[in-house]
Design goal:
This protein is α+β, with helices and mostly antiparallel strands and 438 residues long. It contains eleven helices and 14 strands. Strand 5 (96-100), helix 3 and strand 6 (129-135) form a beta-alpha-beta unit. Helix 2 (45-58) crosses helix 4 (156-171) and helix 6 packs across helix 11.
């Protein structure tokens, strides 16, 4: 069933440069964005369908599919590839599957499977996300909602906004139906609103990886560790960050660098940081713009025993890279010969790993808020899949009621659960010690 389209200024456009990287990785099973919400309230498949159709009318990128038209040629492998386009014309409804299973843990296996399953580009003109509703029985007040995206259409901010919009609709469909669309027509690609590359092209900075470790029971999947930094620790840490002119992102980076120093003897590391760029676009995009407006920047750091020196270094170098050197620091590029020369062999010998650490600070969480009769909590899975390709650790932080929640993703065949938990607990200890010493 095709959706009734809202008036559109732009119904089709080429997929942007950054979006294209995410899309191609998605087609290969890499960086699939997926997450689980545990929902309390009278959620039915019929209400969920109404809500998702409304969200597609509100956010045109959700009402688009991808088609291929023409080819792009380049001087390094892959020498040519099909050119993807977003297209709103004839897009299907967002697929919703309903699975009824009395096992309270059934959602876990389903979530793992969803995180490994790509969204196909074919004649069905599927939008670039899908949902699975897992319920113990019909009419249950406690359900699990698993959302899976092509990362090309959504970043962490978009995901949070969509969750908020979804639950506002569930709480009051009649009022929300009266709201005008957030956007009319497809939003622009990131690079169309950013200044062109200028200044000197610097030599490529190779990734610095964790050493290869043995895993007794390898699992070809993206697994995760969850930890919470309580408000009693997070609040004094924030005060200390202000006095040391550092950021929470810098503190998280310093903590995990310290953990890698103690566990692996690392003396230097590169850190991948996800940065959101809506406000840097000209004209400036509203913060409510749904899409993928991030870059991933690489910065190199000396690893020491001085927490605040490392936190300041991560903070300063990231800010400097955003303001002055984003094009050189960005890794969201199809490999050129310089990248092949530096990374091809290490990637093969290190189980498709790039940098040891990647960090996304996602801001405030909507979890736990009451939306009329509905509320939700985030499940023990989420983020993006990194088992095909990526860093050894992918750290996502959210904040709620003064606390900081950490979701630390890792490939189950690169690190053991024991090693991932040990690294995370060492990092929590670094953050706690820095707060208590403040």
């Amino acid at each position: 069933m095709a959706l009734t389209q809202v008036p559109a200024m732009v119904e089709t456009r080429p997929v942007g440069e950054q979006e294209r990287i995410f899309h191609y990785l998605h087609t290969m099973g890499g960086l699939i964005a997926s997450g689980t919400s545990h929902v309390s309230g009278p959620l039915t498949p019929e209400l969920l369908r109404r809500a998702m159709n409304w969200l597609q009318r509100q956010n045109p990128i959700l009402a688009s599919h991808i088609r291929y038209e023409g080819h792009t040629w380049r001087s390094a492998p892959p020498f040519y590839f099909p050119t993807p386009w977003f297209d709103m014309r004839g897009t299907a409804e967002i697929p919703i599957s309903v699975i009824t299973d009395p096992d309270p843990e059934a959602w876990r296996a389903i979530a793992l499977k969803e995180a490994k399953t790509t969204i196909k580009v074919d004649k069905r003109k599927l939008p670039r996300m899908r949902l699975v509703l897992v319920r113990p029985h019909e009419g249950s007040q406690h359900n699990h909602l698993i959302m899976t995206f092509d990362h090309a259409i959504a970043d962490a901010q978009s995901g949070s906004m969509m969750i908020d919009q979804l639950f506002r609709y569930l709480a009051d469909p009649e009022t929300m139906e009266k709201q005008p669309p957030v956007q009319i027509g497809l939003p622009p690609a990131l690079e169309t609103g950013l200044p062109a590359a200028s200044g000197e092209k610097k030599p490529y900075q190779p990734a610095i990886r964790f050493p290869k470790t043995e895993v007794a029971n390898p699992v070809k999947a993206s697994l995760s560790v969850e930890r919470r930094l309580g408000a009693n620790i997070a609040e004094p840490l924030r005060a200390a960050l202000r006095s040391h002119k550092a950021t929470m992102h810098g503190a998280i980076g310093a903590a995990f660098m310290g953990a890698a120093r103690d566990k692996f003897g690392m003396k230097e590391l590169t850190v991948l940081s996800t940065v959101e760029l809506r406000r840097m676009m000209k004209p400036q995009l509203p913060v409510s713009s749904f899409g993928c407006y991030i870059d991933i920047l690489r910065t190199k750091h000396a690893v020491s025993h001085d927490f605040w020196k490392m936190a300041g270094d991560v903070s300063f170098k990231l800010i400097n890279a955003i303001a002055r050197d984003r094009h050189n620091a960005s890794i969201l590029k199809i490999f050129g010969w310089d990248m092949y020369k530096a990374e091809f062999i290490p990637i093969l010998t290190h189980r498709n790993r790039i940098d040891g650490i990647a960090i996304t600070t996602a801001g405030e969480s909507y979890a736990g808020i009451n939306y009329g009769p509905f509320s939700f909590e985030q499940g023990g899975s989420g983020g993006v899949t990194i088992d095909l390709f990526g860093p050894s650790l992918f750290i996502v932080t959210t904040e709620k009621e003064g606390a900081v929640d950490l979701l630390v993703g890792y490939p189950g065949y690169v690190l053991s659960t024991e090693d991932a938990e040990d690294l995370t607990d060492r990092a929590i200890a670094e953050l706690t010690a820095a707060a208590e010493a403040a």
